[in-house]
């Protein structure tokens, strides 16, 4: 199976025994600790099973008196096996929640990575899972991470820019599902172009921040961003992280940005072609051709870049390969239409100019008269 989405690894954690000798007394307290140890172990096991379903449980606003009794160790998705540690149950809650969100992204990737077309129900499930993941990341950032006494270190999972990158990537990938469905249902090329443009913009923001804009020349399409999704997201994301930790992820985000910008130019070219604007359509499709070639090159670079997470293979996916063929065939149509409109058109022949009949100036018969 080719993998369409890049996925960073799950967070790993050190075992916790919950043996508080001298602090708990009696069988009931011992049973609670044993149940807690078993429940934690079982939850960690579920993260490796993409066929299970995880549902939210009730929440309590009352802080436990035992919040700071246990030290918890968790790795970070971009930092290898060197763990972060905090003696805080909220850190445990956030780290578990982070893994739940990652699980939903991996589950969505498993469904979307099918070589054949996914069904409508599967597409809805992919979309739903990515929305849930984005919601969990956003909730952790807004409601729980601020409660930690020890702020997140630079480049660690709980730092705001990493959370933002995960949120934006989930939004972009959810919109990819919408684009695929719109193409399958043969929606208007203008709509598909606008969706692709916005998706490319999401990937740009996740990987490069909001300062670099590659879309200045693409001013024909009017975009209306979903401000409700993006209000709480700051666009400094991965651009300032150490390359050793983020290079592979950023390379993936870059190739997806190029790929969907190429899609936008391709479908915008179809819109122009339908309006008999062949010259503009050719320019748009030539830009799509250039960006698609760049995306292909980035796929190779991404595959050769070292970094956390298994390597996705977007260039091997049918959806990726189809764009190259579509760009070529649409460009050929534009050129054929341009050529046919210029063939066999002869200038109107000029009207023949007939010579004027000259008067007869031959000498007449001599009459004997003369002019003096």
From TrEMBL:
SMART domains: BRO1 (SM01041). Residues 72-372 form the BRO1 domain. Keywords: Coiled coil. Residues 347-365 have a biased composition (Basic and acidic residues). Pfam families: BRO1 (PF03097). Residues 278-305 form a coiled coil. Residues 338-372 are annotated as: Disordered. It comes from the Eukaryota. InterPro entries: BRO1_dom (IPR004328), BRO1_sf (IPR038499), BROX (IPR038898). Belongs to the BROX family. This is BRO1 domain-containing protein BROX.
């Amino acid at each position: 199976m080719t993998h369409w989405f890049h996925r960073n690894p799950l967070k790993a954690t050190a075992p916790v025994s919950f043996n508080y000798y001298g602090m708990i007394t009696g069988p009931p307290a011992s049973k609670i600790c044993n149940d807690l140890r078993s429940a934690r172990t079982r939850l960690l096991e579920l993260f490796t099973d993409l066929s299970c379903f995880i549902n939210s449980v009730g929440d309590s606003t009352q802080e436990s008196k035992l919040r700071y009794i246990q030290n918890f160790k968790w790795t970070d998705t971009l930092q290898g096996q060197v763990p972060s540690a905090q003696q805080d149950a909220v850190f445990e809650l956030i780290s578990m929640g982070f893994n739940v969100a990652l699980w939903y992204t991996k589950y969505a990737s498993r469904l979307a990575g099918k070589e054949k077309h996914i069904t409508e129900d599967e597409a809805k499930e992919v979309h739903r899972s990515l929305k849930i993941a984005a919601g969990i990341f956003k909730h952790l950032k807004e409601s729980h991470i601020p409660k930690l006494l020890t702020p997140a270190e630079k480049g660690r999972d709980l730092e705001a820019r990493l959370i933002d990158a995960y949120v934006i990537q989930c939004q972009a990938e959810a919109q990819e599902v919408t684009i695929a469905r719109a193409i399958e249902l043969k929606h208007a090329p203008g709509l598909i172009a606008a969706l692709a443009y916005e998706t490319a913009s999401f990937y740009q923001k996740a990987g490069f921040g909001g300062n670099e804009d590659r879309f200045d020349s693409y001013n024909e399409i009017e975009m209306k961003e979903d401000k409700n999704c993006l209000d709480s997201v700051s666009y400094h994301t991965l651009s300032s992280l150490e390359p050793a930790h983020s290079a592979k992820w950023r390379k993936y985000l870059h190739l997806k940005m190029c790929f969907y910008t190429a899609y936008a130019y391709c479908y915008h070219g179809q819109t122009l072609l339908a309006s008999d604007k062949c010259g503009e359509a050719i320019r748009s499709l030539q830009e799509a051709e250039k960006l698609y070639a760049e995306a292909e090159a980035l796929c190779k670079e991404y595959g050769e870049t070292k970094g956390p997470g298994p390597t996705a293979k977007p260039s091997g996916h049918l959806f990726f390969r189809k764009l190259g063929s579509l760009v070529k065939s649409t460009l050929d149509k534009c050129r054929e239409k341009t050529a046919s409109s210029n063939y066999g058109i002869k200038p109107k022949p000029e009207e023949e100019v007939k010579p004027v009949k000259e008067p007869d100036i031959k000498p007449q018969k001599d009459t004997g008269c003369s002019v003096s």
